[in-house]
């Protein structure tokens, strides 16, 4: 993908992975709209990279519609949409209805709503790129957080469906699936998340490096931690063995928290 003078929107770009992606896109010549629910953070990143801040909710139907309309007014055309905003919610079935709904709205429906707005125009012009930050949890699971795991699986599934349906009509869909990344989300993941992810956590800039490589070759799965591919294959080839391994890992977490 030639990013020179392309129009890109990055949600959740006020910090972490989103900010790193926005910086790399701008450095490659893209005109970037920086979105974040934190207006100050969005404006700071936009000022740094010479982009435009369009703060606000990138999950609700009204918020997504407003974001894409304003971004289009600034960019003329949106060539790349990076659906990066996400939330991590701890717990299992006992997590509240509000927490489950929040995870569903931000981690899944934000992507659906963005595609609803963008796909018709991309089909008409014959090109467009949808980049979804999914997490390795969408390929595997995340112990300690059923809402996060379930919704990230759904986000991956939606990306697969988009690619299967529109991939031969000019729309490229890609999913970024890192393990631990040194962001606020990791800090908020609690003892379980840190015990599992912190040791191999990489920087947002390293994720952005992988994203740029993925944009260059068009692969569907962008894996900043390459070993995730092996875990994903093991999960598919022998699910019972993989689950047994996850139960052993969960037992170690329980022991560590005892």
UniProtKB/TrEMBL annotation:
Signal peptide: none annotated. Keywords: Oxidoreductase. GO terms for molecular function: oxidoreductase activity. It comes from the Bacteria. Transmembrane segments: none annotated. Its EC number is 1.-.-.-. Belongs to the short-chain dehydrogenases/reductases (SDR) family. This is SDR family oxidoreductase.
